[in-house]
Amino acid sequence: MQSTDWKLETIAVQGAYTPADGEPRIVPLVQSTTYAYESAKGIADLFDLKAAGHMYTRISNPTVAEFEAKMTMLEGGVGALACSSGQAAITYALLNICRTGQHIVAAQALYGGTFNLLSQTLPKLGITCTFVDQHAPAAEIAAAIQDNTRCLFAESLSNPGTEVLDFDKFSTIAREAKIPLIVDNTFPTPHLCRPFEFGADIVVHSSSKYIDGHATSLGGIIIDSGRFDWTNGKFPEITEPDPSYHGLSYSEAFKESAYILKARVQLSRDMGAVLAPMNAWLSNLGLETLHLRMERHSENATRLAEWLAADSRVQWVKYPGLETDKNHALAQRFLKGTSGVLTFGVQGGAATGERFMNSLKLAKLVVHVADARTSVLHPASMTHRQLNAEQQVQAGVSPELIRVSVGLEHIDDIIADFDQALTAANQG
């Protein structure tokens, strides 16, 4: 059986890397910045993009390449570029096709760092963004697209609002506008959602989260579907000659891989926000248990959400795995599981919520999400504190909202910890 026929679980364990006779069974860690060559012409061909190979770890590295290849297989794309963080991956994904004077349309339910990138940092480079309500009618979202709009951006499952993207609506809008749909698939991972199957063109991840799975390694990755038509007249940076490569046209030279190869040999070359080999090795190791972990995360989160929803000390619970959640129908259509993140508010508001978080013993208050250990966070005062009150509400963050990243511990222990913390919070 060829690896192209393998199920996702098998790809997660053994995808991409095939050792030859006598070679290491496990992907080797190549902790080297440089590589040796036999001829000057061989190096020249690498720099002219006439030959494949590793010229320098800022461009590529054997260990990083194995991680990229496995992620490409898991998402069903044609190529990937690993970056130093999820933020770097999103920035590269956008800068690869956006320049001064151009525009992005994005769903407003986003991670705070992404919202800040689009609303504050990119405008300093002359790239503006219009934020839309992803639940608005298609015509309203499409009306935000301008002549200079370069892409439509959204999260498949938003952080922290757990809004599920309507892929049918967003992919149709993007296709009719002849612009790519870029989707951040961090929370579901390819085990629970494969955006390319629902019309997305580019996928990005913060691999620091569920892909690594153990909070050990910062990283990000961009995966290219290879399906978008960059020759439709809107993207000259991909079709017209690049003077830094002697007039090479990416679309002519690399066909369906034009976008991702341009990101590698132009943005990684010039900006250098690349994934370290050690982090790639750890992230690739994390992928081997991705399917097991995502199933347990989803199961535990559903159980905890149900318990919280039935507790009179809790004001509200938001989790698409609950049948009463407004995103439940979308989750049933586009997700194979609802991941491990939920949000809720306690009776008594933000003050009681703070006492609750301070009273937890098993779960910890951390500025992270989506690893093996249960953790909590208060987005309004932490990850989304750079946003004003109106922007926080638009991003799905209310003052009392507590984000829970449900880990892999036994669900009875998680519930017991939340129970005693709620009791302590109401006695404070």
Descriptive account of the structure:
There is one protein chain. With 428 residues, the protein is α/β, with parallel strands linked by helices. The protein has 17 helices and 12 strands. It has helices at residues 8-14, 40-47, 62-75, 86-95, 112-124, 138-142, 167-177, 189-192, 236-239, 250-254, 258-271, 277-287, 290-309, 328-334, 349-359, 389-394, 411-427, and strands at residues 79-83, 103-107, 128-132, 149-155, 181-184, 202-206, 220-224, 314-318, 341-346, 364-365, 375-377, 402-405. It has a 7-stranded mixed sheet with strand order 1-7-6-5-4-2-3, with helices on both faces. Helix 1 runs antiparallel to helix 3, helix 3 packs parallel to helix 12 and helix 15 crosses helix 17 (411-427). The radius of gyration is 22 Å and the shape is globular. The termini are far apart.
Write the layout of secondary structure elements.
Layout: H1 8-14, H2 40-47, H3 62-75, E1 79-83, H4 86-95, E2 103-107, H5 112-124, E3 128-132, H6 138-142, E4 149-155, H7 167-177, E5 181-184, H8 189-192, E6 202-206, E7 220-224, H9 236-239, H10 250-254, H11 258-271, H12 277-287, H13 290-309, E8 314-318, H14 328-334, E9 341-346, H15 349-359, E10 364-365, E11 375-377, H16 389-394, E12 402-405, H17 411-427
Parallel strand pairs: 2-3, 2-4, 4-5, 5-6, 10-11
Antiparallel strand pairs: 1-7, 6-7, 8-9, 9-12, 11-12
Helix pairs in contact: 1-3, 3-12, 15-17
What's this, in brief?
With 428 residues, this protein is of the alpha/beta class. It has helices at 8-14, 40-47, 62-75, 86-95, 112-124, 138-142, 167-177, 189-192, 236-239, 250-254, 258-271, 277-287, 290-309, 328-334, 349-359, 389-394, 411-427; strands spanning 79-83, 103-107, 128-132, 149-155, 181-184, 202-206, 220-224, 314-318, 341-346, 364-365, 375-377, 402-405.
